[in-house]
């Protein structure tokens, strides 16, 4: 075997080092590009998880983020949100991307167990695959794993039979992509995707049929976003109706409400305050405008083509100290200091009651909740603090509360139906039962 002398060996060594350096230089940009791409995907997943409000449902009160356990009360029983942290045993740590995709878009867990559609997979079915991949990347890379197995659902027969959900999926699951309308601009099409899929607005604001499927999935249905009942609250009509919908709101009004939880027309409360606090306030300005553009394009579902017309008669009576109508005196004592004799409130702090879509809603459930238990506005970065409206269930009986609500719904030009005492009594009992159940957990 021939052995190279010192000089040739040194030359060969230098040549090899040079080749290795060239190879490393060629590979390094590719590696950096891959790392940058991974970081971008994780950040995209973070943004999508936030505006889809994943943490709100998958985090119990006082619990670890995304570990599940939040009770979700439905008309057929109570179920608990799942653990979506990357814990291998009780979360999604063992899920492949394909298995995660199947769970998110088709409601089938890794072990084949079917998920209840309280998880809005019927909306997520229309997510793009690259967005599902981004969510997967974020949950796996950035969320701390938590070992937590959550309670089993407590469902009435036969709804506890998960096998029936396969039939439900056949009947109601539509995984066609969100329709791209070439006649519309990019903002409208982006808004359609956000509203229908990512933000799943229809899960709360679209009425459901006998088998609890949404009656409409997009703007082609007259039921889509026309208002619904959710856990004892009335989720308002988001179509273009002038009185009970968004017909009187501008595109900027909608974006402002989603960003801050308040505008000149209304202030958030109840579950919507949570949505604003944990999700919509973080939407980019372009996405807020896109959602607003899409919502403003929806025709009114209830045929309200005439705008709200204020009537000064109630304000005049209150200012004169006249309490002719039932509920007027209680309004003057408990409500007028903030909402005024004219029902106009104080814009972006105390919402107007005159012409407010929630006040005019055919379903007074949210107003009943507000007067019984009070409410909190959204906690957002654009406001120095949230505002607590006190509840008056402790001092007013059912008939008095019904009178106040009826007075509000029929004053200043409002033309909503009276609120029966029985509705207030039933909701008071339901809220008390809910508090007992929470205390026993």
UniProtKB/TrEMBL annotation:
Extract the PROSITE patterns matched here.
CYTC
Q: Where does heme c 2 bind?
A: 201, 204-205
Q: Which cofactor does it need?
A: heme c
The residues covered by the Cytochrome c domain are 40-143, 186-299, 316-412
Q: Where in the cell is it found?
A: Cell membrane
Q: How is the cofactor bound?
A: Binds 3 heme c groups covalently per subunit.
An example of a GO molecular function for this protein is: oxidoreductase activity, acting on CH-OH group of donors
Residues annotated to bind heme c 3? 335, 338-339
Which residues does the annotation say bind heme c 1?
54, 57-58
Gene3D superfamilies to which the protein is assigned, alphabetical? Cytochrome c-like domain (1.10.760.10)
Claim: Zinc-finger is one of the keywords in the record: no
Q: InterPro entries annotated for this entry?
A: Cyt_c-like_dom, Cyt_c-like_dom_sf, Cytochrome_c-type_DH, Membr-bd_ADH_cyt_c
Q: Which domain of life is it from?
A: Bacteria
UniProt entry keywords in alphabetical sequence: Cell membrane, Heme, Iron, Membrane, Metal-binding, Repeat, Signal
- Which residues belong to the signal peptide in this entry? 1-35
Q: Which GO terms describe its cellular component?
A: plasma membrane
Matches recorded under Pfam families:
Cytochrom_C (PF00034)
Q: Which PANTHER family match?
A: ALCOHOL DEHYDROGENASE CYTOCHROME C SUBUNIT (PTHR35008:SF8), BLL4482 PROTEIN-RELATED (PTHR35008)
- What's this protein's name? Three-component membrane-bound alcohol deshydrogenase, cytochrome c subunit (AdhB)
